Description:
This protein is α/β, with parallel strands linked by helices. The protein has a single domain (25-174), classed as 2-Layer Sandwich (Nucleotidyltransferase, domain 5), CATH 3.30.420.140. The chain has helices at 3-10, 62-75, 95-111, 123-133, 138-164; strands at residues 28-34, 38-44, 51-58, 78-85, 115-119, 172-174. Strand 4 (78-85), helix 3 and strand 5 form a beta-alpha-beta unit.
Amino acid sequence: MDHKRRASEDAGVALPSRNDTVVRPSWRVLGLDVGSRRIGIAVSDPLGITAQGLETLQRKNKRHDFQHLERLIREYEVKEIVVGLPLRMSGAEGTQSEKMRAYAEDLKKRFGLPVHLWDERLTSAEANRFLREAELSIEKRGKAVDRMAAVLILQSWMEQRSASGSQLSASGSDL
């Protein structure tokens, strides 16, 4: 046993050994903030630790949107999708929630991947606040807010999954 390991164990601190492994996914998760005109898109790093914004897709029709998403799913080797679920401030679902549930079901059928719905309350407001603090112009902010909201949705879902140690959580639902 080396001196660092012995000293750390004596102090009650466990250092990882060469045989210790941290189990993390080695694939990416796609995060979507779906609106009527645009879809903000984010993707996780391969270890599922951080979310990066990719782009904002201008919606045309479902066929066009799904072709674009299919290209991203292949390019980034995506194995799961997280879709923001718009809830009322009370936590109740409304008509927009029903639309997102149907959209998520369509994604699952089309791509055959697990689709997770995640509470997106206040993500657009938080994204706007971040972008205002970054002193972006109103024009640039408008183009970035959906992408930033997708990052916030995906990042909070990954953090919850990591904290709970499972694929499921009480704050979201899976299809």
